[in-house]
Amino acid sequence: MPNKPTVKIMLLDDEPFMLRLLARQLENLGFTSLFPHASGAAALEAIAHPAGAPELILLDLNMPEMDGIEFVRHLVEQRYTGSLILISGEDERMLASASKLVQAHRIDVLGHLHKPVQTEALACLLASWQPSLRGAGQVRRKAYGADAVRAAIANGELVNYYQPKVVVGDGRVVGVETLVRWRHPTDGLVYPDQFIAVAEANGLIDDLTHAVLREALAQSRRWADAGLPLKVAINVSMDNLRSLDFADFVSREAASAGVSPADIVLEVTESRLMTDLRVPLEILTRLRLRRFRLSIDDFGTGHSSLVQLRDIPFDELKIDRSFVHHAYADPTLRAIFEANLSLARQLGIEVVAEGVEDDADWNFLRETGCDMTQGYFIARPMPAPDLPGWIDTWRTRLSPRTATELAGAIAP
Predict the structure, then answer these.
(1) Has domain 4-138 been given CATH number 2.40.50.140?
(2) Which of 60, 79, 160, 394 could join 13 in a cystine, given CB atoms 3.0 to 4.6 angstroms apart?
(3) What's the pTM?
(4) Is 110:139 a contact under the CB 8 Å cutoff?
């Protein structure tokens, strides 16, 4: 962090006592360039000044005339690139909702604090703050057009990465999710959020999915031959399910690669609403009859919903990361997670929790009895050759008892 006295911090609260208290707390933490304001209008006027924009604003949500939510909207209009800490006497759900709104506006939120603010909690939020990086997340990434994506598919520039899926109860590695990357000849590794939507919008998603699926099936065969039996999950867009030939294509490619359908999980993602489910339902039902496993991905977000769960014979439900990470400490997230887990159990469907990022997430999943999980706490997506070595490393992170159990479950 830069020298604390040089960091400009604005304090916005309509209560003079709270302004004095916050100022004293910040001074005790070494911050002295403080600018208190008792109204949103005055604060905005100061920010509009050429040298007036602070690097951090401590913002009270409950203010007369202009509340904190309206103030944030004006910050967006002024293209504010600093950070916020939200402060309020409201309950946790209200603060969490306000934080998500600010993030949706692409303004960095360090966190939120309840009144009266505790110095320790404030210090914790400020400890990892990096003002020099403000605005870095708003740099526009390169956009790719349909011709570039079409050429990438034709030239074999797409590569598969694989993220491990493990059993929560004992840590066994039982599968991987296939995640496509674009190895661009000049731009390096390009992530799917920069080209999947382009492929879907320009009629290229079938070619893309076919390339990903063929390589994933071939890799599944290589792992099996090496004594590493894994269920390989492959993402399928609802756009892939518009053609009745898709089920035959998948069956034919699996047979050609020598891979059992039971070892393939097709993860269905629905990025756009489909009003006519007759063709997708036929395709998925035929695939299920042929013993391919079906998974509903990102459950609870977008268009992945109870309707799809009702109509399609899924074997697996993946709870979206937004309902998993930090659910142990958030009553709302915990309630949603446990409701989805209970629903899946009643339907006889296995559950995969996405987005486990730390020990607390992992312990929460063990406590709830979730079936499987994946996330950065376990491993980031990796090239196929890295997986055997990672499995050895993963074993060393487990307890000696669990590591012993794993030794006979998966060959190195």
Answers:
(1) no
(2) 60
(3) 0.73
(4) no
